[in-house]
């Protein structure tokens, strides 16, 4: 089998007396969409945060392309090529689409103005942002300088996914990307996800929505009581099987 | 696929393409006005400022509407203007700094006493004063960002500490104009002026305008400026999006402290003396917050333009000067400013409703 692109080994994370991650393993292979499902409180978010640098695990190791990495903040993970779309989207409502896409990685002008006066190259950033949104089919943008707060929920989600897709060179993590969206908007985001995979970037998808998970995922990581219960192929099991594994109603298949 | 998801098929088959359109919906004249104000938050105070100058000009004629009077207003607002520039930075990060005025006064005392009590060259004392301002700013920043004390509480405490230090350190001693002129002219440097026609620009006024222009550039056109807005807007989102929130807050408070120290230098030039009991120590914070709020900068952070704060300071100056010349009771000034504050925040709330 090919080498996993992102691996977690024996990850442990405790919050006081609560053990959120209990010696959890995790693997993501190149070019796949891996769904992570689990009951509320199973530790999905802790797992994702440990992989994306938002929390530092108490024990265990994370490997990116076979090399051990230690992330102390989301900025570290981002620098390594792991982009995360958080459930809260992590956008500044009063700033423009372009500003938000380039938050923390702004492009400066070349020459004197950029080097000594640190002037931003707004045109370059706007063109890039417009290009990326068009690539993902978020066309008909008239004003890339529109404040994010003037967009609808679906549009904001689209911009957040576009931001991750534009900069995520190795892994993209999506935390409940369709939770707050209507049927139509969810559809669009699922198309975006498939589109990103077709460009060869593996995706970790955390979702409660079984139809969505079964539609796009290549493999499903079932999380239960702080660890990986099993990994199933959505073609071999039904949605009710998956829910049964996740809640403990059914014995997990032997790998 | 099971039947349970067939409800989605309609959307799937139709292949909806009308999803993320960023169409520009016009909502009539009011919507356009709201959008314009949303994009240019400094426009309202500018309109009020121009209207106020025009009104007083018509009312009082040449006496008010002359280069001499108008530049005199600039001289009268120079201290508040510089403090308002500092206050703007903190308020943009959704904070507030109550220690600005007191810090400016303490810096004047340090600049003065280091020269006269310890016999240091005035230029060196000046530098020490500026560094001290930045140091107090750094302390505020550390308490807000690392110890997580709310900015209001941090700077409320710092205000009292700084105010008390001013009296203790100065031994309540005032340095007079004649002393300063003979032994430390560089402390009075910003009191010098250039006259063009009837207009008098002190170096302090010019410095105030330079500070505002430089900060406006930094806030609008550098990554740092974008980070300041993002941190004020939603610090958690900014952190997750890759902004170093702690570093941004520290830089803002340090810069604010430094600008307060500059305001101190401007004060020495303006009053030609160093007095620990200067009123700026007690009301400088409220004056600067007033200018910032009238300038349309949101106290909730992340919104507004530093030019607004400058216009806000000018509006207060114009009202004071105009009403005094018209012979009105000075209380009218305060009443008008009070109404302006409430009006400005009401307007801010309306602008923030951006369903348009």
Q: Briefly, what is this?
A:
The complex is a heterodimer of chains A (255) and B (356). Chain A is of the alpha/beta class.
Shape of chain A: globular
- Report the strand count of chain A: 10
CATH topology (fold) name of the domain at 6-92 and 169-247 in chain A = Rossmann fold
- Count of strand segments of chain B: 2
Low-confidence stretches of chain A: none
Largest interface: A-B, 53 and 41 residues
Distance between the termini of chain A: 15 Å
Main beta-sheet annotation of chain B:
2 strands, antiparallel
Radius of gyration of chain A: 19 Å
Tell me the β content of chain A. 15-25%
What value does the Rg of chain B take, in angstroms? 24 Å
How much helix, percentage-wise, in residues of chain B? over 70%
Task: Give the assembly state of these chains.
Answer: heterodimer
Across the major sheet of chain A, the strand order is: 6-7-8-3-9-10
> What is the CATH class designation of the domain at 6-92 and 169-247 in chain A?
Alpha Beta
Give me the secondary-structure category of chain A: alpha/beta
CATH-defined superfamily of the domain at 6-92 and 169-247 in chain A: P-loop containing nucleotide triphosphate hydrolases
Furnish the topology, listing elements before pairings.
The complex is a heterodimer of chains A (255) and B (356).
Chain A: E1 6-15, E2 18-28, E3 33-38, H1 44-52, E4 59-64, E5 67-69, H2 74-79, E6 82-85, H3 97-101, H4 111-115, H5 122-135, H6 153-167, E7 171-175, H7 183-198, E8 203-206, H8 210-216, E9 219-224, E10 227-232, H9 239-247
Parallel strand pairs in A: 3-8, 3-9, 6-7, 7-8
Antiparallel strand pairs in A: 1-2, 1-4, 4-5, 9-10
Helix pairs in contact in A: 6-7
Chain B: H1 9-14, H2 28-39, H3 43-60, H4 67-92, H5 100-116, H6 122-145, H7 151-170, H8 177-183, E1 193-196, E2 199-202, H9 203-221, H10 223-233, H11 235-240, H12 245-271, H13 280-294, H14 306-325, H15 331-352
Antiparallel strand pairs in B: 1-2
Helix pairs in contact in B: 3-14, 4-9, 4-12, 4-13, 4-14, 5-6, 5-7, 5-12, 5-13, 6-12, 9-10, 10-12, 13-14, 14-15
